[in-house]
Design brief:
The complex is a heterodimer. Chain A is of the alpha/beta class. Chain A is built from 24 helices and eight strands. In chain A, the strands form two sheets. In chain A, strands 2-1-3-4 form a four-stranded parallel sheet, with helices on both faces. Chain B folds into two domains: about 260 residues, FAD/NAD(P)-binding domain (3-Layer(bba) Sandwich); about 140 residues, Rossmann fold. The chains are: A alpha/beta, B alpha/beta.
Chain lengths: ~450, ~425
């Protein structure tokens, strides 16, 4: 504890602070966020820097230690601007997990990035609007999913993609993810909502944008698996979790959607529901970024009641027992599993491997602790594409060496990158769980 | 409670890993939980047992000969010499040919980055050719931009300390263009891949490095580099440099983040996996639930963004580290062990916690829990706090690992002992 934290600490002997010399000062006049103790906790061991996937491939990137505590300290001077290199941070948040001293690095990065975008980035630039559109993927997806076949055809038209790169800075190297012909929410309404009622076992599903518009099969697997265990599911109104907005410094957009989500889900928590996510970046946002960045009523409550889907079943059900007696039909599928960085920070990096170790019919192989490199919208930017692929190289190589020719991960954009780099089909652990436990 | 094990180890450093493997080898079902990425990468990779006595005598030639004279309550006194040897034997088994020193009970003297020598019981194979007892002259090579290893200064200090050989230092520019302040892993990975992958550098990085070093060689039979010679393929990097230079090559251990520490971490975590230990990293253990009569721990509470999830087990091992690792915490009021609130003896007046001299006898360095001979922490009256809780590593008190050079040895000995007893009591 620093002296500045507690100028009136009654435990301080009177003789230690001469009355005439000590003047308590407000060290955070311009900000409601108290990041001072975070900066003070950094003892410069540089472990975060050696964990940073961007610094690993880009020697010019100053690394998380600079972007966090050092930049924060420099900013105490009025004449200092945020270093533009903050936009090269991909928000993978691995530095948080690496820090032995609990410095809130990603929180500092989110703050610095938002300040840079607010005050230093031109609102007339292509970069700003490109980033804004990427960050607000949900809005485009909503429109695109109204005409999925047309959108899919247009999005992957070669000349159009080239034009997108030239005019808008979106890489032409990637194929756009296909929109489902029926969204998850449409399916949910069509089946008449929950099929199981329960007073005790109730979960509210935060499906996020991707499982709704692009991979409803993941969301359906969540629903069927949880219903198999006797859970009543609700699918409330929700916005984007905010993950792509944090990563692009669009905190106002993120705040808008967070307000919707927190109000919607905290009401359900009062009725006995826990919040379940199938995307580990969504659960990360609700659990860590919301309480770090927002002060809406119910924020802490939502954070404390949010779980990733498998994690929730591991905690509340005898999942190990259920899987020990189960098997997946087929010829012993080998799965090359990549743990998303955001899963790592929630303590989930090993759970899929641990869980499926004893399941007959599948063999799961962990392809190591490297970052996939796409980091949501990052790898979609033309100027970041090569960096994104260089980061992913280690994972591609490990996948190539793995037995299986099918990949597995919880994160939709890691899945995109895995498919893009190897050509493998990518599955979600919930789909494997459904195959093992739910009778079709 | 769905998350349930026979043995639960809290903490992922050397003591925690050793305890987990030791428990798993009794046949127990083991889970290891740690808050953050393991801190082994912050350690030098050297495995010391006892370099100096608590009175400051040393460097000791034979650490085992000094164990009998340690004061009551010292972790080695608690577990006995057998556990020290068993802990080292377990380490030897896990590290196999990547470590040396097990041919003798005597300490080796290893030159460090600052030109000092450290007495140590086991050392990475990569530092073996650098032993200070070796009488062959040595060339130390540092890299521009790699702060933390000043080769000429290091050599001068070795000579001044009376090393039985002549050391010389030279600084070369690393053969790949780098930023002003590159990460240590950057050097290691460039040497691993052996190609810079950019237009600024053609061909083999290792060979280019040799070309820069060879001009400085003046008859020395061994060359020491800062410990950044590879992360994934250190043997290959060293072998290539040795072949091309025509001399032995060794690494000089560096401060954090440390490549020898990273390599050891990788190896030990692979071993955990192979033993079937369930590993979980990312959430802190913040408390516990006791049984009805209060003498057993039923579960520990793992914090997940504000929710606490119980992890049940029959036996628990506390290996959360000391003051630096935050296994022992302090504020102006007192010193505590934050997970189980085990008793940590300390003077009431915090001005008695330290000595005014920087290298004086600091009480804080010996703060920690006070265990019985089964390593179960005891309360202030000397009674065991919980029947099924044992402690290992730096969370233990009554020893000053920094002054004694005993940190790794205590972690291995107490980790082995606590893990085995935990496993046997399931």
């Amino acid at each position: 504890m620093s002296d500045a934290d507690s100028p009136h600490d009654p435990g301080v002997p009177d003789d230690e602070i001469p009355d005439d010399e000590f003047e308590p000062v407000d060290v955070f006049p311009e900000s409601e966020l108290d990041l001072r103790s975070g900066a003070d906790d950094c003892y410069k061991c540089s472990t975060c820097d050696t964990n940073c996937p961007v610094a690993e491939v880009d020697d010019e990137f100053p690394g998380p230690k600079f972007q966090g505590p050092e930049q924060w300290r420099l900013k105490r001077k009025d004449d200092r601007e945020i270093d533009p290199s903050i936009m090269d941070c991909s928000n993978c948040m691995r530095c948080d997990n690496a820090c032995p001293s609990d410095v809130p690095l990603s929180q500092m990065h989110n703050e610095a990035r938002a300040e840079y975008v607010d005050e230093q980035m031109s609102k007339l630039s292509v970069e700003y609007w490109r980033n804004r559109v990427l960050a607000n993927y949900r809005k485009g997806a909503w429109l695109g999913s109204k005409f999925p076949r047309l959108t899919n055809a247009l999005a992957n038209n070669g000349p159009l993609r080239k034009l997108g790169e030239k005019l808008f800075g979106l890489t032409a190297e990637r194929e756009f993810p296909a929109f489902a012909t029926q969204t998850f929410r449409e399916w949910w309404a069509e089946r008449g909502g929950a099929q199981v009622q329960s007073e005790e076992k109730r979960v509210a599903y935060f499906h996020g944008c991707y499982a709704n518009y692009n991979t409803p099969e993941v969301a359906k697997a969540m629903v069927r698996t949880f219903e198999q265990f006797g859970y009543e599911i609700v699918v409330p109104e929700q916005g984007c979790s905010g993950t792509p907005m944090f990563a692009n410094g669009m905190l106002d957009d993120a705040r808008r959607d967070a307000a919707t989500n927190i109000s919607s889900f905290s009401e359900l928590i009062d009725e006995g529901y826990d919040v379940i996510c199938s995307c580990t970046s969504c659960s990360m946002a609700l659990r860590q970024e919301y309480p770090e960045l927002f002060t809406f009523e119910g924020t802490a409550d939502v954070a404390a009641h949010t779980y990733e889907a498998l994690e929730y079943l591991r905690i509340h059900e005898d999942l190990r027992g259920a899987l020990a007696g189960a098997e997946v039909d087929g010829d012993g599928e080998d799965l090359a599993y990549h743990a998303p960085c955001h899963a790592r920070n929630q303590g989930l990096a090993r759970q899929a491997v641990e869980l499926f170790r004893d399941l007959d019919g599948v063999a799961v192989e962990d392809v190591g602790d490297s970052c996939s490199g796409i980091s949501g919208t990052y790898g979609w930017k033309a100027e970041k594409y090569e960096k994104s692929m260089a980061i992913g190289e280690e994972m591609f190589e490990e996948m190539d060496e793995a037995e299986g020719r099918t990949g597995m991960t919880e994160c939709p954009t890691c899945a995109m990158q895995m498919e893009h780099g190897t050509g493998y089909d990518i599955r979600h652990p919930l789909e494997i769980l459904e195959a093992a436990l739910v009778e079709s | 409670m769905a998350i349930e094990q026979e043995v639960l180890v809290v903490g992922g450093g050397l003591a925690g890993v050793t305890a987990a493997v030791s428990a798993a080898r009794t046949g127990a079902d083991v889970r290891l939980v740690s808050y953050k990425q393991p801190t082994l990468r912050n350690a030098s990779g050297l495995i010391d047992v006892l370099g100096y006595t608590p009175d400051g005598e040393g460097p000791l030639v034979d650490p085992f000969a000094a164990l009998d004279d340690l004061p009551e309550g010292h972790p080695y006194e608690r577990v006995g010499a057998d556990a020290v040897e068993s802990g080292l034997a377990l380490f030897d088994d896990l590290t196999d040919s990547t470590y040396e020193g097990n041919h003798t009970e005597r300490n080796a003297l290893i030159p460090t980055q600052g030109g000092r020598v450290k007495p140590t019981a086991r050392y990475p194979a990569s530092v073996a050719a650098g032993l200070a007892s070796d009488e062959r002259d040595a060339l130390l090579v540092g890299f521009e931009r790699l702060v933390g290893f000043d080769a000429p200064l290091s050599a001068a200090r070795l000579n001044a300390a009376g090393a039985p050989f002549e050391a010389r230092g030279a600084t070369v520019e690393f053969p790949v263009a780098l930023s002003a302040d590159p990460k240590v892993t950057r050097f290691a990975h460039l040497l691993d891949r052996d190609e810079a992958g950019e237009e600024r550098q053609e061909g083999s990085v290792r060979r280019a490095l040799v070309e820069r070093v060879v001009t400085h060689l003046d008859g020395e039979q061994r060359v020491g580099f800062p410990a950044v010679l590879g992360d994934d393929h250190p043997e290959e990097v060293r072998a290539d440099l040795e072949a091309d230079l025509g001399v032995d090559v060794f690494e000089v251990p560096m401060g954090p983040p440390s490549l020898p520490g990273l390599r050891l971490e990788d190896r030990l975590y692979d071993a955990l996996d192979a033993e079937g230990v369930r590993i979980e990293t990312g959430n802190p253990v913040v408390g516990y639930e006791a049984g009805a009569d209060g003498d057993r721990v039923e579960a520990v509470a793992v914090d997940r963004s504000g929710a606490t999830v119980p992890y049940a087990a029959e036996q628990f091992v506390l290996a959360t580290g000391g003051l630096v690792g935050k296994g022992i915490d302090s504020d102006r009021e007192g010193v505590e062990e934050p997970v189980f609130d085990c008793h940590v003896g300390h003077p009431p007046d915090r001005y008695d916690w330290f000595d005014d001299r920087a290298f004086g006898d600091h009480r804080f360095a010996r703060f920690g829990v006070d265990p019985d001979r089964e390593l179960r922490p005891r309360n202030g009256r000397g009674a065991v706090e919980f029947d099924n809780l044992r402690a290992a590593g730096a969370v233990l008190g009554n020893y000053d690992f920094a002054a004694e050079k005993s940190g790794s040895g205590v972690s291995l000995a107490t980790g082995f002992h606590a893990g085995r007893l935990a496993g046997e009591n399931t």
